[in-house]
Structures are given as C-alpha cells and as structure tokens.
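Figure 2 data, in text form.
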Amino acid sequence: MNTTGTSGVFAREFEVLDRAVEVGFAGGRVISVSFPADVPADAAADHELLDRIGAYLRGERDEFAEVPVGLTVPTDRRDVLEALRTVPYGEEVSVSRLTRLAALDADDPEDLELVTSALDENPIPILFPDHRVQGGPYAAPGDVRNALRRVEGL
C-alpha cells in the first residue's frame, strides 16, 4: 500500500456498518479511524485503504499489518496497541491475555488499568483491532464492534 506523503481525511459510507468510516492521514501514516453517522463534507472518498476496508467488511481477510500508522499516544499505551495489532484475524483475547502480550503483569491493577485505558482511547480501531478483545472497553462504537466481530466470525 503506497501512502507516501498522503495527508488529509478520507471517508466512505459502508452499508454493513450503517455508517461511514473516516480515516485521517498525516505524512503517509494513518493517525485516526472513526465512524461518523455520515461522510463529512470535506472528506475525499477515493483511497486505497477505504477500498481495503470495504473488502474486509465484505469478508475478505485482511490484517492491515503493513499499513503505516502514526500513533500519538504515550509509549506505554503504544506498547499495548502494538501487542493488540498482533492478535490474528478471527481470533480474540481477554484483557488479561492482552496485558501479558504487552509484557505487563495481568495481576497488577495498574497494568490492567493501562491496558483498558489504551483500548478505550485507541485512536485507530480496525488497524488496532480492539473488537478482538473480550470484555473491552472499546474505541469503536458498539454497533461497529458487533459488525466487525461478525465479519471475523467472532
């Protein structure tokens, strides 16, 4: 996927979600994914990543692993989200398992709080698939999360 130099906001409505997917880019990296009710007037609809998201929503397996991202979160939350990105398509993990994947202690309340706040504030759902975590919280709205789980057979 060639996003070199891409900056701006791209969005497209997807029937399976009954809403739009909006993707923000800066310097060729995805910095945000959100799910507005309607496509924003200033968003362009033509982008390869939106094509891929559409194919994914139609059931085509895609992990989006090579899509360049620009996480603007503290390092400890970045580690959690990077661990989340390793959870394979069609599989789910518990919060405690994700905590261990992030090399944290699942028995430490502070580590669990770090993981749940990273999930809750995930700026790039789908690419950092919080819908694969059992018992959340989730950055994606509930109806979007449920649709993504159905797509992956979860």
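Caption note: Strands lie at 8-14, 19-26, 29-34, 93-94, 133-134.
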